[in-house]
Amino acid sequence: MCEFCTKHGEGKKWYLNVKNYSQDLVSDINRREYVRGFFYGVDRGYKKYFNLIKSLPLNMPIIGPSLKAILKRRLIYTHWGQVIPIEDVEKVLSITSSIVRIPCICRKVTTGKEMRTCFVITIKPESIELVDQSFFGGPDVAKFEKMDKTNALNFMKEQESRGLFHSVWTFKTPFIGVICNCDDTGCIAMKMYKEVMPIFFKAEYIIKLDKNECNGCKACIKICPFEALEHDTVDKKVKVDYKKCCGCGICRAVCKKNAIILRQRLSVPEAAHLW
Questions:
Q1: Are residue 129 and residue 177 in the same domain, yes or no?
Q2: Domain residues for 45?
Q3: What is the end-to-end Cα distance of the chain in Å, rounded?
Q4: N or C terminus of the chain with fewer C-beta within 10 Å?
Q5: Do residues 58 and 146 share a domain?
Q6: What per-residue confidence (pLDDT) applies to 50?
Q7: Where are the beta strands (DSSP E) in the chain?
């Protein structure tokens, strides 16, 4: 994304640029301090920060859009994400050489429950030191599970059937350190997205629905985390709201008719500039 101020990689997507996972970025002292402060500060500061942002006049004409632009710019250069489909998850995993599953920091903070749905992804195994597992309840090595690419990918495919979508996140952009599997159960990013403002980009894709194949079963409507699908009472089929669709593609996992495919967002005029 040109707006993201990062150079595209071999796959013409910023998250497929090998340099964005490099050890040089991980070794930066300021970045390591930022990550440490992020993990230990989110527990104490999440509610305060969230309530502060909600108190801002973000919906006021002129003032609101300006404030959102300022907040967005600041977050983009610190901690920002983008939705990616399972095909691109596989490509990201092929770039990285260290894949470690850890408990979800969002759910720990918001619900107190442990769900191991996040993956620290780096070029060098020692980069896992960026995340201190004591934050998740002491020096329990089992909380950090090193996984190979096949098992990690299969795990994330399984999450799709449960309604979780995938996203990549930076720690002081452009360094990409985590793949998350998110939904409404305690995810801070989703809470921000629905109640305040997006803190992640939509995917580089958007779905295309084949109405000739769709039988109107509504399974995709129920699983869509962004409420981008609805039932058309006229033809008894499903229709897509391009303004809401984030292109995660998880609706495909429950479509028994294979009526849904992904296509490039830029190829759809209605959605080309909706990030």
A1: yes
A2: 2-201
A3: 10
A4: N
A5: yes
A6: 79
A7: 81-84, 98-102, 118-122, 145-146, 165-170, 176-182, 200-201, 205-209, 229-232, 237-240, 260-264
